[in-house]
User: Fold this.
Amino acid sequence: METTPSKSASQAEVVVLSDYLKCIPGLFVHIRDETASTIEFKRYADRIMHLVVEEGLAYIDNQSPITITTPTKHVVTSCSNNCSNIVGVSIIRAGDSMLDVFMRLIPEASIGKILIQRDEATCQPVLFYSKLPSLADKIVIILDPMLATGGSAMTAIQVLIDRGALESNIYFFNVVSCPEGIDNIHSKYPNVKIISATMDKGLNEQKYIIPGLGDYGDRYFGTQ
Ligand code: PRP
Ligand code: URA
Assistant:
């Protein structure tokens, strides 16, 4: 099937898996359900995050051609990621839920962490801590399941750029995004590529994504 990446208002690149993967709605219905137990939420969230990381890697601009011969002596050519130049950066806390699958799929990657929390009253991001490997010439993948206003991701992107990452080498893998957050990011960082499992309608007054799924970190880690 031919697929065209979605465009945000700024026309920068956004990949939304639900535009073309048939399995996405049937997985999301479980994590959107307010009655889902923590175990149920985790089971389906893990399956979605696996898809995001696996499919997201296919959009990374660090691939080289590879040609192999099958046991039936047929020659097959495709492309493969150079995994040794990838850095994964989780935005603590919810971003840590994506690390398991990320490290399983890309064991060569080095891992950084940035602790950013949204202030519950103002919804503004507060940066507490970062620990990062060298970012020069690296592909840097931000991991955080939720892209709401984009404030947390933009704070993380600026930290990464200040530490030597090239904006065009930064990717943001998430589970749910919305147009406001995407446009906010792309108005300041048009070269950051965003890969989302799905894009929801928008934000409510409390800056929660709608229809959304509530607080991802609380539901994944059982702290609601
Ligand atoms: C959530 C989420 C993102 C942020 C998204 O984290 O994991 O980091 O909110 O919202 P934004 O796009 O409006 O910044 P939160 O600060 O609630 O902390 P948590 O990871 O502990 O749940
Ligand atoms: N963070 C979440 O976990 N959920 C939202 O809807 C918005 C921010």
Q: What stands out?
A: The pocket of uracil (ligand 2) is lined by residues 146, 148, 208-209, 212, 215-217 (CB under 6 Å). The chain is about 30% helix and 30% strand.
